[in-house]
Amino acid sequence: MLLWIALIFLFLIVVAAFAGLSYFSGGQRLATLIPYAGIAIAGGSLALIIGAIVFRRRLPRLLWLWTTVIVLVALGIGGVGAVWAYRTVLPPRYQTQFMQEVPLLRALLPTPQGGAVPTVAATSAISVEDLLSAPLIAATPTASIAVETILPTATPLPASPTPTPTQAMTLAPTSTTTPPPTSAVIAPTAATTAISQQVVDNFSAPTTSRIYGFTHIKQGWNNCGPANVTMALSYYGWREDQDYAAGFLRPDEEDKNVSPGEIVNFINEQTGVRAVTRIGGDLDLLKQFIVNNIPVIIERSYAPEGYDWIGHYQTVVGYDDSARIFYVYDSYLGTGVAGAGLTESYTDFDSEWQAFNRVFIAIYEPAREAVVQSILGERTDVMRANEIALETARGEARADRQNPFAWFNMGTALTKLGRYDEAARYFDEARRLNLPFRMLWYQFYPFQAYYEIGRYDDVIALVNNNLVNGGQYVEETYYWQGRVLAAQGSRTEAAAAFQRALVGNPRFAAAQQALNETG
Question: What pLDDT, in 10s, does the model give residues 45-83?
């Protein structure tokens, strides 16, 4: 009997050894332990029952029965405890890993409390017709420094091309960030510097074009931002992995969002190349970047099989006018047939891109700044880019007045233009049309617009909706909660909110500034 017990322990030790080997060789994914846990539980339980039966003549008569009962009770208690831990203790990234192995586990997770952004309580006296006929161009007040910090954009390009990099391009990283390692600094290569530095004023794109030289990166948990940055930078010889980028962009592994401005700041401060982001892009603009071998990342909506609406980054690598398709490298889905890129029709591509106001991030060598300026054209001026986005969204809202993204995009553009009162009215209409609740994981302009005009109850309503729908892993949620609490005089509670935001991202400069001001 003692030998039998020893064999059981030996069996469990062997299973644990194989489980450890699989865990560390499989990227330290907890989900790889599932089959080994099943083998250990099933094998150990079966061995105990068999042992009780085999040694029944030498043991008390009912020992086998009690052994079976004890095992079943232990399995029941363990199962209930495992379900509780899975629902309430296990971080979301591990929950998702387990669901991928055992899809039935999805039913054990609590259902989000709201499938859409909450609608506005009060109805504006301004009709939809009045909103769509209001003047597009108006005097644009300057946004506050705090807002510019929380909603960063790339350093504006100079108004006219310059033959050499500007001073902003040669600045060393600030003291708040870690300088890039020697291996991470990108130097221009012969291949890239040989590319034409000119763009024809009246651009006529060839029917097909493709950028070669990317290394595809398979993203980790919620890591499409750092993965795509790493993938795009690989074109210039970047040798760091996605974890290096993630360490700056999302220090908290549960962080749900990396904003375009954060990506631009990382590239500009930690690499030898430059990046610029704008909203209001279009398909022809992307083609110009591709033709000129300038990597470009876009943010779009995505609904993978078995999942609902989320945001996602992709790297655009080519296009074909004859087939009306773009080729993209996707950090989640891969690179398509023979690494040529996944294909997406122009219609589907633009439709999914619309949800993020057609934001794009272009990554280029400093010596090619004049090329980028020529491609951007009017969009070189960030305010003009915002006006173009506003004009585009206005046309789309007129064509389909039930499209919540068109209304949201108008609100975003107006917020970036500093026209907060107008922006709030457009956000009201977007909320009335049932925006997906994850929209506010990625885009925070409604918080800003409502805050700037004193509609604090609306800010808190959006904050609370985030907190019960996964947005507790988005540091901006706590930042805007703190801003409202500070404005209402609750300094202690505001400080706690800013501190919570900094726990999610210690590099969140606006939250640190707000905390300092709160005292």
Answer: 788 777 777 776 777 766 667 777 877 888 788 778 777
Nearest 5°: phi and psi at 29?
A: -95, 120
Residue 92's pLDDT band (boundaries 50, 70, 90)? low
Q: Would the CA dihedral through 133, 137, 141, 147 be positive or negative?
A: positive
Q: Please determine, for residue 193, whether its predicted confidence score (pLDDT) is greater than 50.
A: no
Token digits for 307?
């999942």
Residue 372: which of 197, 509, 210, 242 has the closest Cα?
Answer: 197
Beta strand pairing status for 360-364 and 274-278? antiparallel
- CATH superfamily assigned to domain 157-380: Cysteine proteinases (3.90.70.10)
Q: What are phi and psi of 143, to 5 degrees?
A: -70, 155
Helices first, then strands: H and E counts in the chain: 22, 7
Which distant-in-sequence residues (6+ apart) come within 8 Å of 482 by Cβ? 493, 494, 495, 496, 497, 498, 501, 511, 514, 515, 518
60 phi/psi in degrees, rounded to 5: -50, 145
Q: Is 56 helix (H, G, I), strand (E, B) or coil?
A: coil
pLDDT at 176: 37
Query: In whole angstroms, how far apart are CA 34 and each of 19, 20, 31, 37?
Result: 9, 12, 6, 5
pLDDT at position 79, please?
A: 78
C-alpha span between 123 and 121 (Å, rounded): 7
Strand partners, 301: 311
Exposure b/e, 225-257, CB count within 10 A at least 16 = b: bbbbbbbbbbbbbbebebebbbebbbeeeebbb
Matching residue, tokens 């805007």:
480
For 384-428, write each residue's pLDDT tens digit.
999 999 999 999 999 999 999 999 999 999 999 999 999 999 999
> What are the φ/ψ torsions at residue 176 (nearest 5 degrees)?
-85, -5
Residues of the chain with CATH 3.90.70.10: 157-380
